[in-house]
Design brief:
Length: about 200
């Protein structure tokens, strides 16, 4: 049969081997290991994510009913409930307090609307206003310090002037001489007496 068709057995074997090789190459699990299976893994990952999304969408309508009810863990439930009751009591008390405070303001002030506005202004200061106030405080502090420094400088200068004046007077008295050119001892003794009297 092979000879009548003109094919040798080796050629047929080679063709079969080639077909089998192609099948092995294209369906090989080694493709994934060699790095060519990246796209396949990515595809699987996307499919998984898609399935999860579908599952979540199915679950959403069932959960919408319980969305606004509070569920607390069992071991902390009593704490949460106590806190909730406190908040409810505060909410009940606050309207009465606000009414009484408004009455007090209207009694004490002749212009209640103005006072409320000014109070709100003072309470709610912007960051720019706060910065301006801080700047003004710092400016006033610097001015006060400058004035104090100026006063101290003037006092120091005055003290130095008086000291120099006394020194000059003492020098004039001590440097006076007689007609013969000798130091005048009488004036020196008088000066020393005055100094002793001032110190005692």
């Amino acid at each position: 049969f092979e000879k009548s068709m003109g094919f040798s057995s080796t050629v047929l074997k080679w063709q079969l081997w080639r077909k089998n090789k192609r099948k092995i190459v294209f369906n090989s699990p080694f493709l994934i290991l060699s790095g060519r299976g990246f796209a396949f893994r990515r595809k699987q990952k996307i499919e998984r994510q898609y399935r999860r999304l579908l599952k979540k969408r199915r679950q959403v309508p069932a959960q919408q009913g319980d969305q606004f009810t509070d569920t607390y863990p069992e071991h902390l439930k009593h704490l949460y409930l106590a806190e909730e009751e406190k908040l409810k009591k505060r909410r009940r008390k606050t309207p009465d307090d606000s009414v009484s405070s408004e009455e007090n303001v209207s009694r004490t002030c002749t212009f209640p609307s103005r006072s409320v506005v000014t109070q709100e202004k003072f309470k709610n200061k912007t960051s720019n206003q706060k910065a301006k106030e801080e700047y003004e405080k710092i400016k006033a502090e610097h001015a006060r310090k400058r004035e104090e420094a100026e006063k101290r400088k003037q006092q120091r200068e005055e003290a130095q002037r008086l000291y120099k004046k006394k020194k000059m007077e003492a020098y004039k008295i001590l440097s006076k001489k007689t007609k013969k050119g000798q130091p005048n001892l009488n004036l020196q003794v008088e000066f020393l007496l005055q100094k002793i009297q001032q110190n005692t």
